[in-house]
Amino acid sequence: MRTVKEETQNPAFAYIAGRIDKMLVPTLLYCLAHKPDHGYGLIQKVNESGFSEIEADPATIYRNLRRMEEDGLVISQWETENTGPARRSYHLSPEGHQALDYCVQLVTEKVITMQAFLEQYQREVKEIE
Amino acid sequence: MSNQQTLKILHAGALRKPVVECAKLLNEARLGLDIQLESCGSRACARQVREGKVVDILALADPMLFDELLGPEYVDKYYIFANDQIVLAYNEFSKGSGEINPKNWFDILLREEVTFGRSNQHLDPCGYRTLMVWQLAEQYYERPGLFGQLDQRCRGDLIYPKSYDLASDVLVGKLDYAFEYLCVVNQFGLRYLTMPEKINLSNPAHADYYKQSTVSLQGRHSGEMITIPGAPIEFAIAIPKNAENPPLAKDFLDLILSKKGQQILEDCGLIPY
């Protein structure tokens, strides 16, 4: 298991950490952890999930997928085996799976912090009122 | 031997710039090529191939056309490679352009002194997509009768064979406004109004909403009519089965689908897949 410090030295992981609040990259990684998919399907899944705070318009999703590919988190290939329509399909690389684990770690830390905030608010503000 | 060095490309007018840019790159990499480019509305392109036109690359503004008009006799595989949206194009002198916005564009278009155009739905996907945008707008803005009003005002000479020519006429001021792909507007450097995502046919997240709009078109056979539902705007490319130079066509296809091709598409205002 990498340490948070090691991970934030990796530019791809630092990028994720800087935008964890928006939850778009974690959601894309999560969707792709289930099965490979193309951008069209990912746009629909990200919107349906409600996890991302960024509106999943095509420009945003494809720009993020291209960046994730440059960072080695996803691998794309054209579906060429069958006749009919072919689309570029994305799947998670081993680095992508590590990135998803890292997202879970960051989200867990945020949840703990927020939970502590809520408990302290209940204890020190709400109950005094 | 001379045939091996010729690449015939038939493409949607909207794809003119990216196709030209990719052709230039291929030409630089393989000197001595004779690359022949021809464009028209995508439905017209597909019909030409059905009627016997032989090309090495066919790039269309709607993937559905490959299934509807060409498969499986002429094309058995096609690549869906980019996305776009419908916008309202105008120039700095277009009447009402100083006040137009996403909430009032239809009221401005319906003014007596304003002219606006669209492309022919039977020849060009931008034409039937424009009709879908009008239908969706009627519902989205809760303006019963809006589709009919817009349709009534946009008749005859205001309906063009292909969307690319519309942009050119907006540029020179012959038309105040035109319903266009964003990539064409970018290629011409026109001003444009972005419509709400629920009506501009851009986002797969709204695919079910878009489906509520339908347009009737001439089908595969003479006299046959088909009804097509609204869908997100996508572009697709294929090597027809009767291509005369499949190896060279494959090189072109690989280029437009490559990282370099993605950059060219993005620079031309498309969203590359």
How would you characterize this protein structure?
The complex is a heterodimer of chains A (129) and B (273). Chain A is mainly alpha-helical and 129 residues long. Chain A has helices spanning 4-9, 11-18, 24-34, 39-49, 58-70, 94-126, and strands at residues 37-38, 74-78, 84-86, 88-92. Chain A has one domain: Arc Repressor Mutant, subunit A. In chain A, 64% of the residues lie in helices and 12% in strands. In chain A, strands 1-4-2 form a 3-stranded antiparallel beta sheet. In chain A, helix 2 (11-18) packs parallel to helix 6 (94-126) and helix 3 packs across helix 4 (39-49). The longest helix of chain A has 33 residues, at 94-126. With 273 residues, chain B is of the alpha/beta class. Chain B has 2 domains: 2-83 and 234-272, 3-Layer(aba) Sandwich (D-Maltodextrin-Binding Protein, domain 2), CATH 3.40.190.10; 86-216, Periplasmic binding protein-like II (D-Maltodextrin-Binding Protein, domain 2, 3-Layer(aba) Sandwich), CATH 3.40.190.10. A 6-stranded mixed beta sheet of chain B has the order 2-1-3-12-4-13. A 5-stranded mixed beta sheet of chain B has the order 7-6-8-5-9, sandwiched between helices. The radius of gyration of chain B is 19 Å and the shape is globular. The two termini of chain B are 35 Å apart. The mean pLDDT of chain B is 95. Classes of the chains: A mainly alpha (129), B alpha/beta (273).
CATH architecture group name of chain A: Orthogonal Bundle
Text of the CATH class of chain A: Mainly Alpha
Radius of gyration based on Cα positions of chain B: 19 Å
Q: First CA to last CA of chain A: what distance?
A: 45 Å
Largest sheet of chain B: 6 strands, mixed
Q: What is the correct CATH architecture of the largest domain in chain B? A: 3-Layer(aba) Sandwich
Query: Which word captures the global form of chain A?
Result: elongated
Low-confidence stretches of chain A: none
Number of helices in the DSSP assignment of chain B: 11
CATH homology superfamily of chain A: Winged helix-like DNA-binding domain superfamily/Winged helix DNA-binding domain
CATH classification, class level of the largest domain in chain B: Alpha Beta
Structural class per helix/strand content of chain A? mainly alpha
Quaternary structure annotation: heterodimer
Provide the spatial order of strands within the biggest beta sheet of chain B. Answer: 2-1-3-12-4-13
Approximate shape of chain B: globular
Determine the CATH topology of chain A. Answer: Arc Repressor Mutant, subunit A
Largest sheet of chain A: 3 strands, antiparallel
